[in-house]
Amino acid sequence: MLKLHTFFRSGTSHRLRIALNLKGLTAEHVAVDLRKEKHLDAAFKALNPQGLVPVLEVDDQLVLTQTPAIIEWLEERHPEPALLPADIDARAHVRALAAVVGCDIHPINNRRILEYLRHQLKLDEPAILRWCSEWITAGFDAYDALLKSHGQSGPYSWGDRPTLADVYLIPQIESARRFNVDMARWPRLQAIDAACAQLEAFQKAAPAVQPDAAA
Ligand SMILES: N[C@@H](CCC(=O)N[C@@H](CS)C(=O)NCC(=O)O)C(=O)O
After folding, report:
1. Is 98 in the pocket of ligand 1 (CB under 6 A)?
2. Strand pairing of 55-58 and 2-6?
3. pLDDT by residue (tens digit) across 100-156?
4. How far apart are the CA of 147 and the centre of ligand 1, in A?
5. Fewest 10 Å CB contacts: which of 4, 30, 69, 103?
6. Pocket lining: 39 vs ligand 1, CB cutoff 6 Å
């Protein structure tokens, strides 16, 4: 049995929900309200000392943290349908696309970073939005350029099936919109977003339809 500690608006929780859905796996959802700083409670930190969502519990025995590690575990435990292409070079390229988001965009726009900018460095909200927009734009420009250099033209980031790259990209697009970044600069990324939005795995993972979104 899988238990997912998740927050509806968290990009990394969204990422993991998509991966689980693509694998056809269901998980019980336990909401961790970041707005109320529930992720900093002792009970949650006992699960993840980093105080970050998501966390995946497996059979009440195994506690998994860090979405790159959790998604690799899912890929190894449940190889089909695969989130990585068969070809070894293509696998490296797909992992690199995922890392553009996972290593170089998401971490520096995370809640705790923005809270530090707000409260310690005293930046106002327009400055915070500029910060987010700067790093999302740099990352999406690179993502877009990588797709072009690899001759990838659709419908997904790599080939004709959703891959790990889309698992990472779609939540970051959701977050870009929340930070008022104009996606019109990247028609190819918008097309990938539209293609993924047709798939139930992505629809069911969307922040707006999570039970804790209404709370
Ligand atoms: N590298 C971690 C990052 C997890 C992460 O940053 N989670 C965010 C939500 S998207 C969080 O819990 N943030 C709480 C905070 O920043 O205070 C992963 O991929 O799992």
Report:
1. no
2. antiparallel
3. 999 999 999 999 999 999 999 999 999 999 999 999 999 999 999 999 999 998 899
4. 26
5. 69
6. yes
For the residues of 189-212, what is the DSSP string, one character each? HHHHHHHHHTSHHHHTT-GGGSGG
Under the banding of pLDDT at 50, 70 and 90, the label for residue 214 is confident
Q: Which of 94, 102, 86, 72 is nearest to 12 (CA)?
A: 102
Report the pLDDT averaged over residues 59-81: 98
Q: Please give the pLDDT value at position 215.
A: 72
In the sheet that holds 55-58, the strands lie side by side as: 28-31, 2-6, 55-58, 62-65
Give the end-to-end CA distance of the chain in Å, rounded to a whole number.
Answer: 25
Does the bond joining 54 to the residue before it have cis omega, within 30 degrees of 0? yes
SS3 of 100-113: the string is HHHHHCHHHHCHHH
ω into 155 cis (within 30 of 0):
yes
The verdict on the CB of residue 52 being under 6 Å from ligand 1 is: yes
- Retrieve residue 39's tokens: 């992720």
Helix (H) or strand (E) holding 179: none
> Ligand 1 centroid to 43 CA: how many Å?
17
Helices assigned H by DSSP within 5-66: 11-22, 42-47
CA 44 to ligand 1 centroid distance, Å: 13
- The answer, as to whether pTM is greater than 0.85, is yes
Q: Residue 215 and residue 35: Cα distance in Å, rounded?
A: 11
